[in-house]
Amino acid sequence: MAGRRSWGRLTQRQEFLKVAASRRRWVAQGLILQVAESPGPEPKTVFRLGFTASRKVGGAVERNRARRRLKAAAAAVMTVHAARGMDYVLVARAETVRRPYAGLLADLERALRGLRLWRQEPPAEAKE
User: Fold this and answer.
1) Which structural domain range is residue 59 located in?
2) Residue 123 resides in a domain
3) What is the pLDDT of residue 118?
4) Which of 27, 54, 108, 128 is deepest in the core (most CB within 10 A)?
5) What is the pLDDT averaged over residues 64-70?
6) DSSP output for 23-83
């Protein structure tokens, strides 16, 4: 995940609460994906992303590990396939730390498809 992130960040509690209030979510074994339309002034060519892990996940070490794993999964899947102009919150679950990484990727892909936010990868010439 070296280099610059291709997404904006949700940092304020109010932003997280607004996404949760939309009640649009997908629950999977390794994560919960919450989503809402982005009200921000950012262009609709980007999306904003937040990560959270409560004490239900475990101690500080487990919570940090869960957030790092969710960030890696987001970098692998969402940078290419997530719909733009949206706010996303990835919520860690107790299983996030123990779930195989391939399972986390599959959970995230299934969540994006299930919420109808899957975006096909642009053609190779458009990436440059």
Assistant:
1) 8-116
2) no
3) 76
4) 108
5) 95
6) --EEE-SSEEEEEEE--SSS-TT--EEEEE--TTS-SHHHHHHHHHHHHHHHHHHHHHHBP
**96 near 63, Cβ under 8 Å?**
no
Q: Is 122 among the domain residues?
A: no
Tell me which residue has tokens 């990868």: 121
Contact 70, 92 (CB under 8 A): yes
Number of compact structural domains in the chain: 1
Question: Is 3 part of a structural domain of the chain?
Answer: no
CATH number for the domain that contains residue 36: 3.30.230.10
Q: What's the pLDDT tens digit per position in 19-36? A: 999 999 999 999 999 999
Assess whether pLDDT exceeds 60 at residue 39.
yes
Q: What is the model's pTM?
A: 0.83
51: which strand partners?
90
Tell me, yes or no, whether 127 lies in a domain.
Answer: no
* Sheet with strand 48-52: strands edge to edge: 8-9, 48-52, 86-92, 31-37, 25-27
